[in-house]
Inverse folding.
């Protein structure tokens, strides 16, 4: 019996039936030894402490939720703010004039609305001139919310003898009382004797003149203006005190 030569990549024939058993061949890939995978590079201390994935060799960006985050988002935000700022300032000033709101509060509210979005990329890309509609709608919505908050707000201090006062009513009342006090003081100044009416009227001028200007206007020396002012104020104080004391509790003069 002739010895059989072993065929590479085949199993040896069975020893029991050497004539009938045919060699069984396998594909070369099944026989060739498997190439081991390259070892994984060790993690850096920064990656070990933060737990962030390593950067991809092809793109250089980390895989996972942090992909896409970087300086591009900051540049987009800055460019968007530069585009919106002039439009927002103009719209807030126009809306605040008619609604009684502070323009700075409206601007801040619109910026907060913009920051509440998941990302700046959610806003559609459009030229600078096409942002007017979006900014106008946001400013109007913020002004509407501001007016609603003002109606709901109630001051802590209550009006004597009544319920909580409305802020607008309190402001109008203060302005009316202040105007009435100014009218009474000016009427009392006109009743003062001598140079007191002209001296005190000049000092109560909205232009706020200096002593030198008042002395030149009235034709008196600057050094004597201070003593004259003191005497006139004392006379005015006594006159107003007498008028207040003359009023009865029911507001009638005796």
């Amino acid at each position: 019996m002739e010895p059989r030569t072993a065929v590479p990549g085949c199993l040896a024939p069975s020893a029991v039936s050497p004539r009938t058993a045919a060699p069984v061949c396998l594909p070369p890939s099944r026989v060739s030894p498997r190439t081991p995978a390259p070892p994984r590079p060790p993690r850096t201390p920064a990656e070990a402490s933060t737990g962030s994935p390593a950067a991809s060799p092809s793109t250089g960006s980390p895989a996972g939720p942090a992909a896409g985050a970087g300086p591009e988002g900051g540049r987009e935000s800055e460019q968007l703010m530069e585009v919106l700022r002039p439009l927002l300032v103009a719209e807030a000033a126009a809306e605040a004039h008619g609604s009684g709101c502070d323009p700075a509060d409206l601007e801040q509210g619109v910026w907060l609305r913009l920051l509440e979005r998941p990302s700046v990329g959610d806003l559609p890309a459009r030229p600078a001139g096409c942002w007017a509609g979006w900014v106008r709608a946001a400013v109007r919505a913020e002004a509407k919310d501001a007016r609603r908050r003002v109606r709901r707000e109630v001051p802590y201090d209550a009006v004597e003898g009544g319920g909580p006062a409305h802020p607008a009513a309190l402001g109008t009342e203060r302005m009316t009382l202040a105007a009435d006090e100014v009218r009474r003081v000016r009427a009392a100044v006109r009743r003062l004797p001598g140079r007191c009416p002209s001296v005190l009227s000049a000092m109560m001028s909205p232009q706020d003149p200096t002593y030198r200007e008042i002395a030149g206007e009235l034709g008196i020396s600057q050094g004597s203006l201070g003593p004259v002012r003191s005497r006139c104020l004392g006379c005015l104080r006594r006159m107003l005190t007498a008028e207040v004391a003359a009023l009865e509790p029911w507001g009638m003069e005796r």
